[in-house]
Every structure is written in C-alpha cells, then in structure tokens.
Amino acid sequence: MEQKNLVDEIIRLKKERDAIILAHNYQVAEVQEVADVVGDSFALSKHAANTQHKVIVFCGVHFMAESAKILSPEKTVLLPALDAGCPMADMVTAERLREMKAKYPEAAVVCYVNSSAEVKAEADICCTSSNAVKVIKSVKNKQIIFAPDQNLGSYVAKKVPEKEIILWKGFCITHKRVRADEVKKIKELHPNAKLLVHPECEPEVQALADFLGSTSEIIKYAKEIPDKDIIIGTEEGVMHTLKKENPDKNFYLLSPGLVCTNMKKTRLQDVHDALLNMQHEISIDEEIRVKALKSLEEMLKIS
Ligand code: SF4
Does the CB atom of residue 40 touch ligand 1 within 6 A? Predict the structure, then answer.
C-alpha cells in the first residue's frame, strides 16, 4: 500500500477502533506524523492515564506500552512492533532487585520507568529523566537504590548530595555510544553551537554539555534559546520535532551512534496492522500490575 493510502487507512481504523496513537520522540518521522501525541515517556504516561479512548496504540518500546497498561487496565494497549524492547530495561530483573533490597534494608527503591512491570512492582516510586531529581528529593529515606540507569542515577546524585544513592549498573546502549572525543570534534566544527545532552549519556559527556535534560526538556530549551546552532546529544528521532518547530535553526546530531534500533522497529505498516488485527496486546499479571501502579502513581502525585 502507498504511504498516503496507509495513513488514510490508519486514520479510518483509528476512528473505527476508538483508538489513540501515542508515539515516543525517538520513533521514525512517519510514525510521529500519524500519532495523536508525540512525547517522552513521562508525557506519554500521563496521556495514557487520562485518555478516554478504548484502545491505545503505543509506538515505542515494550516497557512503555506496559506502563500504559498498568495505568489504564480497562483499555486495550497495543504494541505495533512486538520485538521492540529496551536493552536497558532488561538489565534489571525483579529477582536481582530483591537481592539488592535485602542487602540494603534501609534503602528506598527509585526505579526509572525504563523497566519491566515486575521491577516497578518492587519499587517504592518510579521516575523519568524529566522528574528524577524531584522524585529523589521527595523520598524520605537517606539511602536510595536507583535502578537501572547508572548515568541518570549519578547525574541525580550530584543534584541531591544529601542522599546516598546506590547505583544499579545498567545503561542505555544508545546514549552510552557517545564518546567525549566526538563532543570535542563536533564542537570544533560548530564552535558557536550550544550542546544539549540527555543524562543517559556518560558523565564525561554530560560534563561538556551546556544543558542537560530529558527529550522534552531538550525540545523546550532548544526552542527558547536565541542560539541558531544547536548540537543534540540524544536519540536521532528528536530531530524531527526540533526541525519542524524551529525551521530557522541548525541542528547537528552529536554522534551518528545516537540511533536506537529498537525505537526504529515500528513502521507505518506495523501501526496499520496493529489497528487492523488488534495486535500485539499487552497483558500483565494483576497482582504485579497493582503493585507497579502504586510506584507509578506515587510518581504522578508529585509531578
Ligand atoms: S534509547 Fe536507550 S533507553 Fe531508550 S529504548 Fe533505546 S536502548 Fe532503551
């Protein structure tokens, strides 16, 4: 089917199914274009929690669709590309987290949303990269286990020095690829450009940034600053919104390695097939869902 016909069919099926399409900022441009809402995981979780539609088509990776199902159990949540997972989320399991909790009985557990429902069920509260500092500050315990992203965790630890943060050793394979020497090279090429970096990058890359923030914070900041030349240190998909919203500015991707293959698995055809065949439906064990919901709700309460 041609792209235009595919888009028309998606719009028709969306109405027929009473569906909403949510797409992460890292999705391919054509999927972002067909979505009702494009955002980072925090913005999309909020939409998933509040939507009136019966069906949520989640164009992202597995843990994101799972979060939508945790928040909206009465809805049908579909993940168009079944094999779109997140390697970082897979770096922590509920069993290993329980072992860590047994080792640090005084510690609260703050869990990045990039994790499975089983892991969220073991946490006291969830966080995203936009609200991690606020979440950590809200926790009463001095000692906190932060899982799974050690780079986001060490960034937060610097911002909240009064807490003792125990870092899980997980990482994002996409953001970890960026090297400090690449930063130096691109800065030489564009000496007047501002460098905006995601806290999932390594600390030595973070140290060279003019601004550190989540994808939505990077999008907002890029729009607000008067600078015309901007280097982007997060996944390539964000360039679509940046260029669309700021046609008079020049954006440069910090590293060619900033492409998440899992985020790129969803294509228009998959969105179409998801709506046509109502595939691939997310389901979660109810006991796990209720516990994971508590961690997500704690986060939504303070955000
Ligand atoms: S960009 Fe990193 S954290 Fe996000 S889905 Fe890809 S691997 Fe996971």
Answer: no
Question: Ligand 1 center to residue 257 CA distance, Å?
Answer: 12
**Rama region for 278: left / alpha / beta (φ>0; ψ in -120 to 50; rest):** left
How far apart are the CA of 1 and the centre of ligand 1, in A? 30
Integer Cα distance of 303 and 293 in angstroms? 15
Tens of pLDDT, residues 29-72: 999 999 999 998 878 878 988 999 999 999 999 999 999 999 99
Q: Which helix (H) or strand (E) holds 48?
A: helix 41-50
pTM of the complete model: 0.95
Closest ligand 1 atom to 61 CA: 5
Backbone angles phi, psi at 228, to 5 degrees: -90, -30
Residue owning the nearest CA to atom 8 of ligand 1: 86
Question: For the domain 89-172+287-302, what is the CATH code?
Answer: 3.40.50.10800
**Do 19 and 47 form a contact (C-beta atoms < 8 A)?**
no
Domain ranges of the chain: 3-85+263-283, 89-172+287-302, 174-253
Contacts for 13-19: CB closer than 8 Å, 24+ residues apart: 13/272, 13/275, 13/276, 14/57, 14/275, 17/54, 17/55, 17/275, 17/278, 18/53, 18/54, 18/55, 19/53, 19/54, 19/55, 19/56, 19/57, 19/78, 19/275
Q: Is 262 in the pocket of ligand 1 (CB under 6 A)?
A: yes
Query: What strand order describes the sheet that includes 143-147?
Result: 125-127, 108-112, 143-147, 164-167
Task: Check for a shared fold between 3-85+263-283 and 174-253.
Answer: yes
**Tell me, what DSSP letter sits at residue 16?**
H
pLDDT at 211: 98
